[in-house]
Amino acid sequence: MSNATELVKLSAAQMAEKIRSKEVSSRELTQAHLDVIEAAEPTINAFLHVSGEEALAQADAFDKKLAAGDTEGLPELAGVPIAIKDMIVTKGIPTTAASKILEGWVPPYDATVIEKIKAAGMPILGKTNLDEFAQGSSTEHSAFGNTHNPWDATRVPGGSGGGSASAVGSYEAPLALGTDTGGSIRQPGAFTGTVGVKPTYGGVSRYGAIAMASSLDQIGPCARTVLDTALLHEVIGGNDRRDSTSIPAPVPPVAAAAREGLKRDLKGVRVGLIKEIGGEGFEAGVAARFNEAVKLLESMGAEVKEVSLPHLPYSLGAYYIIMPSEVSSNLARYDGMRYGLRVMPPAGVPQTSANMMAYTREAGFGDEVKRRIILGTYALSAGYYDAWYGSAQKVRTLVIDDFNKAFEQVDVLVSPTAPSTAFHFGEKTSDPLSMYLGDVATIPANMAGVPAMSIPCGLSDNGMPVGFQFFAPQRHDEAMYKPAAALEAALEEQWGGNILTKMATPWLNA
Q: Where along the chain is composition biased (Polar residues) (predicted)?
């Protein structure tokens, strides 16, 4: 497997270059990743469904097009395989949101981003694991078992998109799609040493993304380099008439910005350190790696200053009112009447539709989903709506104003991605509040609708990756790609390559 091992360790951009030069076929590349999946899955459990036959058929179709010279207009990543978070619907491939209530459901249509992936000739390797309905920060709330962190299988990969991040980090896939409602792409990226991006809200169509909290959800890319995420961002981005929140504007020039960043010249780039993110509650190793990375930005010419966003400390509390309220509304559709699980009442209980719905939802939803539905239903109930949901939306407006004012002073904002590195399984599941507090650095971007990105910035004292987060103004995603690519290049010069090369990968030698 040595040749295949070297192949899967390439960046997605390098893989694409080899495909275009015909050094390797899309089928060979896809098969190499399927072989890694077979070897790694007993350890990692990143996938809920592997679509090997379909992926090879898609690869063959692309190779045929390439041989015929029929690839005009295809994006740079054409032919490179990808994994998809199981929160995004895929025609003919099971989509479960990691919930028993959707177990076995096969959608009759593709999400817009999947249509774009298929049109780009990118084989779909399968569907990745997540916290049920994307509700969690550790992928411990999946109905189908935990995903493990490739750096240390006793630790969580983050969540909710731990499956996508672990698949990329373990070389099972060069690219993946995730969804980010409060950090579900970025925090797993930080925990696994990968790059995760939440685009501007509305910059990527949500049509076909199973709704968790509709005003916060956003599909985005996960990869091993900043350039790879930029190239995938350009594949999936753009306006979609089927999504009423989609921005009627072209995709920002993120790939060009990433390539510009590789020159490592940040003269004139104004970087703001967020005063309200950091300090107490952040591990010493996380703070140390973050501060070292800030100095690297300065060494490349960036102008760094502290910026205050005074209402940011209130965003966590407001989020945990808005999000469960929207969860309560969105998950009301899973009632056993139309599709998915149906559980009839036992003998002796009236066989009514109301009872059937109650028994179905009791059996189909996990504890964390039920907790959030109950919280959200309470916040939306008569007599509490204005006091809770209405007040939280006012806080959200203040947070948006804070970001707008901050971006009048700087081009990008930065912070650690998470207060800690990946924690051990079971460490926080009995304390939901502790788990929720882990999202303190990522939630503000979703509340404000601004783009944000996490890149690895080193290893903490425990040998686990630390994430560095960039925020950019709405609709100016490219602003964060340039400094992120520059920082990544400077760090990789120190490390002698991508940070993942420091990770043990016994499954690659299986």
A: 139-149
Q: Do the beta carbons of residue 439 and residue 183 sit within 8 Å? A: yes
Given the residues 51, 184, 205, 325, the one annotated as active site: 184
- SS3 state of residue 330: helix
Q: Could you confirm whether 116 is annotated as catalytic?
A: no
In this predicted model, what pLDDT tens digit does every residue of 252-309 receive, in sequence order? 999 999 999 999 999 999 999 999 999 889 999 999 999 999 999 999 999 999 999 9
299 is catalytic: no
**209 dihedral zone (left: phi>0; alpha: psi -120 to 50; beta):** beta
CB 297 within 8 A of CB 378: no
Which of these, 474, 478, 469, 58, lies nearest to 233 by C-alpha position? Answer: 478
Task: Copy the structure tokens of residue 24.
Answer: 């390797």
List Cα–Cα distances, 501 to 9, 81, 224, 261, 453, in angstroms. 9, 21, 11, 22, 21
* Closest C-alpha among 257, 309, 278 to residue 480: 257
Give the C-alpha separation, 383 to 376, whole Å: 14
Which domains does the chain possess? 2-312+398-500 (3.90.1300.10)
How far apart, in whole angstroms, are the C-alpha atoms of residue 399 and residue 413? 14
Whether 50 contacts 173, CB under 8 Å: no
Q: Quick one: what percent of the chain has pLDDT higher than 90?
A: 95
What pLDDT, on the 0 to 100 scale, is given for residue 432?
87
pLDDT for 1: 39
pLDDT at 347 over 50: yes
pTM above threshold 0.70: yes
Quick: pLDDT tens for 47-73.
999 999 999 999 999 999 999 999 999
456 in helix, strand or coil? strand
Question: E strands within 35-134?
Answer: 47-50, 82-85, 124-128
Tokens 């630790």 appear where?
155
64 is catalytic: no
Q: Which helix (H) or strand (E) holds 412?
A: strand 412-416
> What residues contact 447, with CB distance under 8 A and at least 6 apart?
216, 315, 318, 319, 322, 396, 399, 400
- Name the band, by pLDDT with cuts 50, 70 and 90, for residue 431: confident
CA within 13 Å, CB half, 290: 26
**Chain-centroid distance, C-alpha 142:** 16
Q: What is the DSSP string of 204-260?
A: B--TTBPPSSTTT--EEEEESSHHHHHHHHHHHBS--TT-TT--SSPPP-HHHHHHH
Distance CA 481, CA 461 (A): 28
Among the listed residues 9, 11, 85, 460, the single catalytic one is: 85
- Of the listed 25, 160, 246, 415, which one is catalytic? 160
Q: Which two tokens stand for residue 116?
A: 């774009």
Average of per-residue pLDDT values in the chain: 97
Q: What is the mean pLDDT of residues 353-363?
A: 97
Alpha helices in 341-442 (DSSP H): 353-364, 367-380, 391-406, 432-437
